[in-house]
Structures are given as C-alpha cells and as structure tokens.
From TrEMBL:
Protein's name in the database: Putative glycosyltransferase
Residue intervals of the Glycosyltransferase 2-like domain: 31-160
PANTHER family membership: RHAMNOSYLTRANSFERASE WBBL
InterPro entries, sorted: Glyco_trans_2-like, Nucleotide-diphossugar_trans
Keywords tagged on the record: Transferase
GO MF term set: transferase activity
Coiled coil stretches, renumbered: none
Highest taxon above the source species: Bacteria
Length: 293
C-alpha cells in the first residue's frame, strides 16, 4: 500500500508513438502530461488516455516544462518520467516508502533497466573525471549524479529549492541540478529496490529540424553548465569537438559532420554567455498555458 500521494508527471514533445506504451506499462496513479507544443497530436492522445494535459503554446524546453507541471500538481509528490519510461506498483511503493523514511530528502531515483534487461547507472557527470569504481550501490545510498529519465520529487521542497535551471532548454538539466544539490549539501537518494524500465531515445520522434535543435542545444548546455559551475575544461572540450570535423569529412559522414558543426555552434554561443537558442520569450507559457482534465 502506498501511503503518500503521487502524480506521474510527463513532458511530451511529438511523443504520440510512445505514450500508449507508457500508459499500458505504468501502474495506476494520477497523470499530468505537459505538452511542449507537439505537432503530432500528443496532447489530444494523452487526454484520450486519461491524463490531465497542460498544453503549452510553444516548446519551452524540458526543465521549464517540468517546473510548469509541478506548479499544477496538487499531490505531495511527483514521479517525473520520460515518455519512454514506465514503473510498476511495487517499485512505486518502494520509492514512496523511501520518501517516508527520509523526510529530509526531496529527490529520489530508482534503478533504470533497459529493454534488454541491462541496468543503467550514472557514476559521474560527463563533465567530471571518470571514476574507477563503476558499480551502483547495492542498497539505498546518497548519490552525486542522476539520470533525469525517472525521479520522485517532494514537490514543495523541490520547487522551493528552485528545481531545474530555467536557462537550459535541453540537455544537462540533471547535471546542473545535481551540482547545485551538492553545493547545498542536499541529499539525493538512490533506491535500487525500485526499478523503472527505460527504452531510451524513444521519447520523441523527429526530423532533421528537430535534430538540429537537439545538437545546438547539446553544445550550448554543455558550455553553459561548465561556465556556471566551473567544471570541466571548456577549451579542451571545444578543441575536442573541432578535432572530429576532419575525421567525419574524410569518412564521408556528412550527416555526422553537420551534427558536429551544430554542436560547435551551440557550444560557442553558450561559452559567450548568450541565451539558449530556441528558448521562447519569458512568460509566454505562463500567460497562455491551459490545463484540461
């Protein structure tokens, strides 16, 4: 029996192909889908599947969409899930039990299991030195980094802390969040008895235009988090990105070459302190977003 109130919170962006799978695989609980102005009918589909839908007039990015959703949640906890992730009742109960036993913590993460049964665990941020010990904890433990694919948040405390950085449009949101949690000495608890199936890279369908947004955003967020938190080696990272260009050119990998150029473009914008590309005007979503039951 689950003794706390939990809402499943999902951000969709052209996620119509995967939302029915998630609805079938997840255990029953209230659901809020925040739709980032999808063009494939994701919002209407989510509503037909029984979710309450917050329809945003523009794609405001992943982190901002999560925070917009949390402002609408009326339960004590929210289970933030990617559209391509699912949880069963036993695992949800394990997360809820941990939340009850650790009232000082407002962020809990489960073990992630791939479609082939392989576990996925982040040991460190990609902006940090690689750790030699790669195994996940065998029991509940405080961890320094998470995957944003699945996490249980204590809504009020998470929002009061600030949640996801609104400057970031896409990528490295959870890394930036974890760096702030560490600086504030706030615990993040890993609960391996709770497992979430994560299909990975199936949350959105996209075309070349979507790919461009992702690649430019990846480069921008990489530089932004480095600059904000003083982690990594920005110039070494930049030259590493540039060094791959002749390799892709000589190999005839033109698509990969275009993607790398987009990442470099984003990285330079982030390093220069420019706002995230593709981010809409502040306040637009707050003025026009509507929620439907």
């Amino acid at each position: 029996m689950i003794d706390v109130s939990i809402t499943r919170l999902v951000v969709s962006y052209n996620s119509a192909a995967i939302l029915p799978w998630q609805a079938r695989q997840c255990c029953e609980m209230p659901v809020l889908v925040v739709d980032n102005a999808s063009s494939d009918g994701s919002a209407d589909l989510a509503a037909s599947l029984g979710a309450r839908v917050l329809r945003l007039p523009a794609n405001i990015g992943y982190g901002r969409a999560i925070m917009s959703g949390l402002a609408q949640v009326d339960t004590d906890f929210a289970l933030v899930l990617n559209p391509d992730a699912a949880i069963d009742a036993a695992s949800l109960g394990a997360l809820a039990d941990a939340a009850t036993r650790y009232p000082e913590c407002d962020l809990f993460v489960p073990a992630l299991i791939g479609e082939d049964g392989t576990g996925f665990y982040r040991v460190e941020s990609s902006l940090e030195k690689r750790q030699r010990h790669r195994r996940p904890p065998e029991g509940e433990a405080c961890v320094p980094i998470i995957s944003g694919a699945a996490m249980l948040v204590r809504v009020r405390a998470f929002r009061e802390f600030g949640g996801f950085d609104p400057a970031i449009f896409l990528y490295f949101e959870e890394d930036e969040l974890c760096f702030r949690y560490r600086a504030a000495r706030r615990p993040i608890i890993y609960v391996p008895s709770a497992t979430v199936q994560h299909l990975r890279d199936r949350s959105s369908s996209g075309d070349d235009a979507t790919g461009l947004v992702k690649d430019v955003s990846f480069g921008w967020s990489l530089a932004y988090v480095m600059r904000r938190h003083g982690v990594g080696r920005p110039w070494r990272t930049f030259f590493g990105l540039v060094a791959k260009l002749p390799l892709y050119l000589l190999a005839g990998r033109r698509r990969r070459l275009r993607r790398q150029l987009a990442r470099i473009r984003g990285f330079l914008a982030g390093a220069r302190g420019r706002p995230a590309p593709f981010m809409p005007v502040d306040g637009l979503h707050e003025a026009r977003a509507t929620a439907h039951g």
